[in-house]
Specification:
Layout lengths: L10 E11 L2 E11 L6 E3 L1 H19 L4 H9 L8
Bound molecules: zinc ion.
Length: about 80
């Protein structure tokens, strides 16, 4: 990816940030493009989405919120419990 400001090739680096989520602190890890030329930085939106998705997945697991796939399985096979 090239810098929209100055046209230089940007460097991909990893960034971490602590965010609050459902009353607790979670650590997000995502990609950021940095420009050595002008100092601009741009968050890779897709990697940030994925980081949040992981937080959600963890949250659903620890709180036993069934995913749509689990619900479908449960309907198809009622002997299977949702919480494993
Ligand atoms: Zn630049």
């Amino acid at each position: 990816m090239r810098c929209p400001e100055c046209g230089r090739e940007m460097r991909l680096s990893k960034e971490e940030s602590i965010e609050s989520f459902k009353g607790s602190q979670v650590r997000l890890s995502y990609d950021v493009y940095r420009c050595d030329g002008c100092g601009s930085s741009y968050v890779d939106a897709r990697s940030l989405d994925e980081a949040w998705k992981k937080i959600w997945d963890n949250y659903e697991k620890t709180n036993c919120i069934p995913s749509p796939a689990d619900l479908r399985r449960a309907r198809e096979n009622r002997s299977e419990s949702l919480c494993g």
